[in-house]
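User: I'm putting together notes for a lab meeting next week and I want to include a structural view of one of the chains we've been expressing. I don't have a solved structure, so I'd like a prediction I can at least talk through. The sequence is below, exactly as it appears in our construct file.
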Amino acid sequence: MSISIFLTGPGISTLPIQILAHMEQFFDPTVASVSVLLMALTVAVMAIVERTLGLTFLAK
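Assistant: Thanks for the context. Below is the predicted structure for the 60-residue chain, given as C-alpha cells.
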C-alpha cells in the first residue's frame, strides 16, 4: 500500500488508493467483491501462463 501512495500524483490515483478511499467513505460489500475479482483474475492469469509456458519455462 505504501508504494501506491508514492506512485500517485495530482489527478492520478491507483486502484488500492481508490479502494481505501471508498472504504473510508462507505461501508458496503463492494470492496470485498472487487478483491475477489482481483484474486480470481490473478489465478486465471497464472493458470493460463502455466498451461501455455509451463513451470520449466519460468525456471530458466
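A couple of points you could mention at the meeting. The chain has four helices and no strands. The first helix runs from residue 2 to 7.

User: Perfect, that's what I needed.
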